[in-house]
Amino acid sequence: MIIKRNGLFILLISLFFGTFSLISLNAFADKLVQDSLQYHANLWSRLQSGFALALPPDSKIIRKIGTSYTHNPQLFERIIANSERYLFHVVEEVERRGMPMEIALMPVIESAYNPLIKSSSQAVGLWQFQPETARTLGLAQNVWHDDRRDIIASTQAALDYLQYLHQKFDNWKLAIAAYNLGEGAVSKALSRNIHKGRSGNFYDLNLPSDAKHYVYKLLAIKDIIVNTKKYGIQIRPIANRPYFDTIKIHEHIDIPLVTRLANISETEFNALNPAYNRYVIKVLDEPRTLLLPKKNKDIFLKNLETYQDPRISWQIYHVKKGENINEIAARHFTTVKQLQTINGIGRNKNLTLGQKILVPKIVSEHQEDSIALKKRQLQNYRSNVHIVKKGDTLYEIAKRYGTTVNQIKLWNNNDENLSVGQKLVIMKS
How far is CA 228 from CA 41, 63, 224, 260, 403, in A? Predict the structure, then answer.
């Protein structure tokens, strides 16, 4: 997926004003989504009802590409299995925006619906964004997380961009080709045809073969889903219901702690939250959105509410001049192997000056005694949960519950900063 600097200003302006034009359609779009949920038990049936792009006049090339997929049924089945966690969300968003449902199949081509795929051009995620493209579309990339791999954020960015391209070219096949090739190249091809008095139809444009093949592949995958008997395959059904639910995280938390409190495996967590680069979910300027299997959301929230130990056990360490991994491991009471595993450091790879690595937080004896005392005190209390509302302050909350600001901070390992929706544990004797 490519985007050029040309038209960047127009892109940003179009996305800005496009947001406002869509607000009035939200209620209608929500009703359409609810109707689709009730009508279709199988998600593939819902997809088919939204297909809108016609096959080319000569469909031999579509059959040829489709056959290349179905000649390896194990590979195609793996792609379908990959999509099971994410497809419902993508379908809902495509349908909500009134886009052709073929768009929901683009990650099949881009990443085989595997958000952990990384291309030779450094593109990653379901929608295969390159670093510069992602920054243009507002996807954060830092030491803690790469939102190109975030399921919700990357899908929103991809669909925003595709809508912008469709607004520019007024043709979905040209928009899809531009997503792959770059809008500048498609614009030039279109201008050449118009200048020569020729048609601006996708099939008549002199586009590079790769760009045309990209659109043909999308149409071929659509043809497979519509005509499974023709291709001699069976596609296992996917339930037309959400696989995951979202949770806002307002404080730093270890990923192993999340998996324990949610009662899910690390594999499941990584499949739903592939954006995280470290063993810690770091909350920076805004809360982070966490995805959990729908059936595990309440389990996690209930366990988190009663969890009283520190939620984070790792911290960033900047390597100093002359330090090696053995010294750092010994100083932080851990092993070289653990540091290498957590930071993705090869066995024979040396650390560099200023390199950022994760190390265990060192808890002093005084801190351990304080934690133990706090646990003993809390055994004599029952807890309430206060959800922070707009305008709340620690002083007002403390006054309301007959306690002190310092007590609330102690109970929640918190500082003075609050965020709307944050949950505070309030203990009562």
Answer: 18, 12, 5, 41, 66
Helix then strand then coil, in percent of the chain rounded to 5, is 55, 10, 35
H and E: helices and strands count for the chain: 21, 8
* Residues 183 and 74 sit within 8 Å (Cβ to Cβ): no
Q: What is the mean pLDDT of residues 383-403?
A: 81
**Rounded (5°) CA angle 147-149-153:** 50
**pLDDT cut 70: percent of the chain above it:** 84
Instruction: Tell me if residue 110 falls in helix, strand or coil.
Output: helix
Give the helix/strand (H/E) hosting 113. Answer: none
Q: Look up the pTM and report it.
A: 0.73
How high does pLDDT run on average in the chain? Answer: 85
CB atoms within 10 A of CB 67: 14
**Cα–Cα distance between 119 and 376 in angstroms, integer?**
52
Q: Does the active-site annotation cover 327?
A: no
The single residue of 92, 93, 110, 268 carrying the catalytic annotation is: 110
pLDDT of residue 30: 54
Contact 281, 313 (CB under 8 A): no
CB 345 within 8 A of CB 325: yes
